[in-house]
Protein 1
Amino acid sequence: MEYKISIQNLNLSIGKNKILKDINLNIPKNQVTVILGPSGCGKTTLLKCLNRLIDLEENVNISGNIFLDGEDILHTKSDLPGIRKKMGLLSQRPYPLPMNIYDNIAYGLRINGLHNKHLICESVENHLKQVSLWDEVKDRLKEPASRLSIGQQQRLCLARGLAVEPEIILADEPTSALDPLSSTAIEKKFIELKQDYTLVMVTHILRQARRIADYVVFMYLGEIVEHGTADEFFNHPKQEQTKAYLQGTFN
């Protein structure tokens, strides 16, 4: 198994609150890794460490290493924009830019140096097709993105992230605000995207993890209780806490 990200001895506290405790984890390349666990266990904080958004928090004390393709990204100060460009982020609720559908994707392309109008149009179309949104919006590209349904907005945000050519997609409860049909569309898209991207998804929905995970990480109180392939985790769990969680008796 080839790994895209390697986390070593990661500890993080905010003020006096210890959030992450001795995290050691290798995240497989071109697979869907799902981070499971109850609310408040540190899942989202771990995700924010990967793209260095944790830097925006106050009173953070962090130690350890996070290697992306062999480079320690946790302590470098030289290329934060480059690190974040490698990692597209999909949040719990979609946050389209306050502009039209077309410009939501074109804006990032322009910022990254693409100014050829024909190539921008081509890229916008390709990425909307990539998230199965093109047929729904091709005749309304100049309409405000805010007029789209929540599910469509989430797919638009995914297309916007893919347009800047990341290597990794981070997703923090990406279907929690969506209806069942939109949730299913996002899940199917993630399964397709792993051919070209490494995906790391935070969720507390066990059924969802069973449907799409290749690799599973189970966290509790800031620690990793157990991790392994989906088959190992769901069918051959080793820890009593994991077994209780899977059986619905965990508290």
Protein 2
Amino acid sequence: MTGKVLTITSGKGGVGKTTAVANLAVALAADGKKVVCIDGDIGLRNLDVVMGLENRIVYDLVDIVEGRCKTRQAMIRDKRLPDLFLIPAAQTRDKNAVSPSDMIRLCDELRQDLDWILIDSPAGIERGFRNAIAPADKVLIITNPEMSAVRDADRVVGLLEAEEKGSPSLVVNRLNPAMVKRGDMLSVDDVYDLLRIDVVGIVPEDENVIVASNKGIPLALEAKSRAGQAFRNIARRLNGEQVPFLELESQGLWDRLSRLAGRR
């Protein structure tokens, strides 16, 4: 088995990146894949809370890197999905405790036994970001449909090109069709025109995302959730399936995005 490393990042904080990591991991594991999430946000860990695993942490990422435990000892098994694991970040250290080469070695070890390694990158473009992208086979950028978030995402696209990581894919999170219709929010077309990278997912605004995060139950586990369905669809696309986008607007969104991305 040779697992794929997917780094999920954003230029701007607060766009829902960590929530996306948790939901994509759950969706992939529910589909029968063996998955581990790595919280790369050393000093400010949150992925454990969103996944409902905060009370089960014994060892963390820095413990692995500094040799205080074996990798398997730090991997927390999810309570609901036996093939889903979390490696939490350290809270009492800073991002310099881990190097890009450390992350590459860890992911190379994990590839042998897992289908997917998902890395939750810190927001921004400093050391933590470089740690998170170093082992990545693919990078997924999360943005909200607002100018400040898209501008910061564009900066990340440029950095990834400079690091020769290839073209990332994009998830537009928290889209509100009513606001788009009124002209109060960027449309997906607008975001694509600004970034010109492949759109693999559109997640609708859903107040239940906050409720689910507080409860540690990702919405991808909820069959009736539109946001949860969006994350499940993204996971299927990551596995190579052709899945139409949710119809969030009156026009044919899938057809328009297919034309924009040249996927007719």
Protein 3
Amino acid sequence: MARPLIALKLVQLARELNAEAIAHGCTGKGNDQFRFETIILAKAPDMKIIAPIRDLNLTRNEEIEYAKKT
């Protein structure tokens, strides 16, 4: 239940901030990405979804370095 609620809040905040995209840190190895993206697509189909950890297929150490840089 937590992931859909977090996704709803992400959409709300993105709208308030006039954001063009929503990013998440799901790895693609579980179903969290599905839970986040289903809600985002339903509530904000116009927003781009960015999933760098999944899309770049980063290891845990690479995730940490990526987070430090951005």
Protein 4
Amino acid sequence: MATDERSSRRELEDGIERDFSKRMSYADYLHLDQLLAAQHPLSDPPLHDELLFIIQHQTSELWLKLLVHELRSARRLLRSDDLAPALKRLARIKHVQHCLTDQWSVLATLTPSEYAEIRPYLATSSGFQSVQYREVEFLLGNKSAEMVEVFDHDPVSQAELRTLLHEPSLYDEFLAFLHRRGHAVPAGLLERDFSLPHRLDEGLVDVFAHVYEKPAEHWGVYETCEELVDVEDNFQQWRFRHLQVVTRTIGHKPGTGGSSGVDFLRRALDLTFFPELYAVRTRIGT
């Protein structure tokens, strides 16, 4: 009979570091002492499910931080006509979006009864107040001066949002890039008040129709258009998944931050960042 030599034990190799008294460890590099000490349930004694709620939202904020980082970089690269690395940033952004959307499945394990126990400890706090989420929306073009006012209590964050409000969005920089490449982008889109959200422009639909008629001749632009559509599609999936989880958890109760809850979230599904990239699809093949 053959002897099974497999074992549940793995010997440490001689070269593996063991002494970190004077060397950087994994925990040192990631500041895990601070990161893992940042969860502070307010319930006393702590409710079992409050830790889930806290970690869910803290990890979302970490992913949002990376999204802001990558979106800023993609915007900067488009401004300097570096399309290839900008596309690399968009590819990473899409993967981060998938992580954010998939996380809702974890929070969806929280039943209405379990959430009802936690909810009083949230007081008036709400994800609506996430400054990083607003930074992502502003970078993608959903500008709102009204939203800046929500952060009067946080002057540093408010100043950052106000700066983003008046700066070109990722889409604005893409349109400027198209103009420099010789595409007939309407002048009104290049010299406008960037603090206002972008509105559908039929002249820009014409530009994209030309690109989609001959994709091989405009491959870089064509690819960027499709990457942007992917980003918006992912964002809408995140919004819809959020709506679903809230619906199954609190029904039609108002949100903790004072919103109407589900109805407020449902209206967000009508928002669009890149309307011409969807409008052009009606033109293709006709």
